[in-house]
Write a structure and sequence with these properties.
mainly alpha; 2 strands; 54% helix; two-stranded antiparallel sheet
Length: 181
């Protein structure tokens, strides 16, 4: 259920990874990122069924995040993606930002995070979009721009593909769910 993943993993541990990566609760929800406060991962898009993040549920209790945030290359890439998800990132741009080749970045990032950098970016953008849909009354075109999509149609297509519902229906369901309880 979507409501459960926005509430965060039960007993999620807080991790710290330097500027721009604080408050991780066992998944890549970043407290303090613009527009997102304490959001953990949705079920399954990164790492496996109902994973909530890049590592599977079993690894959430201390698996991949400490290693990923401890690697200076991966941490630099994560920080860049979290600080500017709307940027038109390519693996080459991200690798240059981290100071390594594309192959090195992809190998290290995938090994430690559980997904290639661009797949992680897509997941992060959708996580931010879901949080913004829940936390703001901003129209879809504004949210699309904030999370790196040129049009609300592109965001809606990606959102529907990942979550199985449109952004408008998601917003309505979240409003109803929180109004009920």
């Amino acid at each position: 259920m979507v409501r459960a993943w926005l509430a965060g993993p039960p007993g999620g541990e807080a991790l710290s990874g330097g500027p721009g990566l604080t408050g991780l609760t066992g998944a890549p929800g970043v407290t303090g990122a613009p527009g997102v406060t304490g959001v953990s991962g949705p079920p399954g898009p990164v790492g496996g069924p109902s994973s909530g993040g890049p590592s599977g549920g079993a690894e959430r209790r201390g698996g991949r995040w400490p290693a990923a945030l401890g690697d200076p290359v991966v941490a630099a890439a994560l920080r860049a993606l979290h600080e500017d998800p709307a940027r038109s990132w390519t693996t080459e741009d991200l690798a240059a930002h981290a100071g390594v080749s594309r192959a090195t970045l992809t190998r290290r990032f995938t090994g430690l995070v559980g997904r290639p950098p661009m797949a992680y970016l897509t997941w992060w953008r959708m996580t931010r979009a879901a949080a913004l849909l829940q936390q703001t009354a901003d129209p879809l075109d504004v949210i699309a721009g904030r999370v790196g999509y040129a049009t609300p149609y592109a965001l809606s297509h990606a959102f529907s593909r990942l979550f199985g519902t449109t952004p408008g229906r998601y917003r309505d369901r979240m409003a109803a769910a929180f109004a009920d309880g």
